[in-house]
Design goal:
The chain has helices spanning 45-54, 57-60, 67-70, 88-92, 117-136, 143-168, 190-207, 221-235, 249-266, 274-277, 321-324, 347-351, 359-362, 380-385, 494-507, 511-525, 541-545, 569-576, 583-587, 608-617, 622-638, 644-650, 654-661, 681-684, 697-703, and strands at 2-9, 17-23, 35-37, 79-81, 293-297, 343-345, 368-370, 399-404, 442-445, 447-448, 451-452, 489-493. By secondary structure, it is mostly helical.
Amino acid sequence: MKHNILRGASLSALAIVAAMSTSCKDSFLEEDGSHLYSDDLMKTEDGALAAAAGLYANIRWHFGYEWAYGITLYGTDEFTNGGDLTAEPWNTYDKRLEPYDCTPATGAANKNCPGVSALWTQMYYGISAANSLIVHADYIGDEATRKKVLGEAYFLRGYNYYRLFAQYGGVVLQTEPTSGIVRNFSRSNEDETLAQVIADFEQAYNLLPTNKWRGNGTWTKYTAAHFLAKALLFRQSERCASWNGKYPADTDLNRVISLCEEVEAACPLAPNYEDLYCNWTGVDCANEGLDEILMAAEHNGDNNTSGRYGNRTYSYFTSQFSNFSGGWVQRGQYIGEMDFQRCRPTEYAYEVFDNVEDSRMWKTFHTVFGVNNWTSPNDSAMLADHKITPEQYPDLGDVGIMFILNKKNDPRFQDETTYGSYGKAGSAHTFINPATGKWVPNVFPVYLGGKYVMNTFNGDPAKTNVFCGINKTADGSRTGEKGDAHRDIIMARTGETVLVRAEALVRLGKYDDAIKAVNILRARAQWKEGEKRDGYVDGSVAFDLDKNSTQSSITPKKNKDKSGKQITNIEAYKYSNLGINSYYLSTGIAETTEAGNLLISSYNNLPAEDEEILTKIGCTDTKDRLINFIFNERTRELLGEWNRWEELSRAGLLIKRAKLFNPEAAPNITANKHELRPIPMAFLETLQNADGTNLTDEQKAAWQNPGY
């Protein structure tokens, strides 16, 4: 059986698209981009089917380069910039984040800084392709197939307009193909734009089947239901408060709840949170087909899912360990993450977790790296500086980096008397691992003496390269340090659906029901009987499972043993990935395999970590408290999952929470401006009036969002 896949679309509404021929497998991404399909060729059933399959290629754009995190995660309460400043303006909201794309000439750190025009342009590529397909769908003779294909087209158009609306507000609505080059457009308002989003998702919901008929990654009725629920919740959120009065809140919010319940029933949560991200064992592994996954940008080993369309996300969440570790921990594909230090968690991202009871913290943060390159102590003075004996000096496979995710009131970390002092290998610290009796070259707690110190161990705290990163994108299947990742990227899942329903319940005043919904996620997150709390796994295991490959026997020059002999990649893998975390050292509790309890008894009895955060925010009203609690829970469940900026903007929480929890964003982020992105000048400068004249400065200003 064969079917075709569209690779991309031109900016013109005529949408020349690249079609790919592929055999039916779990993944439909093994592409042959050797043919081009024009509008005329889509006037056939085969051509239209090829175009429909190819719509999926549009969503891979989001994860190819720096815009993946710059547009979605930077400048929020969860993440700030690390030592690498490629996308810094998106985090700091300084004068470089303006309608013109930021380049090195205008202050960007390098040429990879995400341009404000990127999302705008790419979303219209997909919209153009969807419009063309909708027009040509009648050429598909089989009614059932035609409905599915139309559903895919309406879904992509709705999704792309949703992203445009979430970032820019009202935008240009183009729902039919145009002929030739058009330079005269009008901008729809927010109400009109969101109404189009909702209408497209409604169409997709009515047309798409319930099964993944193309294999993993197929958009289904439940994918559409999830995003339709999000769009309706958006309409009843704070950013739309100035105009949403004509839409009855009860009607929208009850529909949200109904849609979410439908998704939750049909697409149940994975039993173990770890299965979503940690237990990724290689290309097209079983966990990529979990029922919980509603939408994913598919990738595999095919050339057409690499390069410009490749998955670069493994580069963004890890600290620069190969730089600060003193040579003890070297990077390579045997560690599933590259240390590009883009997304540094804020203090809030650590403190929001219950570090004893919430297993999501320990299944998300990568806290321990093993020594994979032996470093000589040089002389006895070095041992004396660290107050250690030769027997306490680490060897390959000992702990080389440890992040301690402690709480600020932990009495063991009020001074340096319990375990010694802390720091990176180049500092004269004295920490001895109580589990092994060995000195740890690099060890970093979150708090010392009740103060946040994770950002103080190397250089400027505003751009330090030392932090404990997250593992949701780790991929050991790469064939080189900087090779493209092969794992799918989850864009929507039922875990978020539950939180959408919980927020709708809060907005309806059904507080007890909202807590019951959140407890569904917390029940999964609490430790199970017999679970090993200090165990750890991530997508690096894909390297070990492929240990017979040519990559495994390579001897990288930078990894050596005591004798100076180079070790192989597979040996480096085993020394680097120790299968442990810092749970017991971080919490101080006695070792246990008993079941935990993370459930909340009442909306009047929220967890201590939430109460501390709500106090900082200044929440007193019950509804306000619970909306912010839901956003805390979104962090615990969805940290790093590509939508934080849009969600905070939607709920009117972006400015306050960024000011409180992101020190690098706080000085510049401004209300009534930064809730939206600037309309790109790259677009405005192409516009013309009906008479063919260019827009005046006043006309461009009328198009622009407030404050830019």
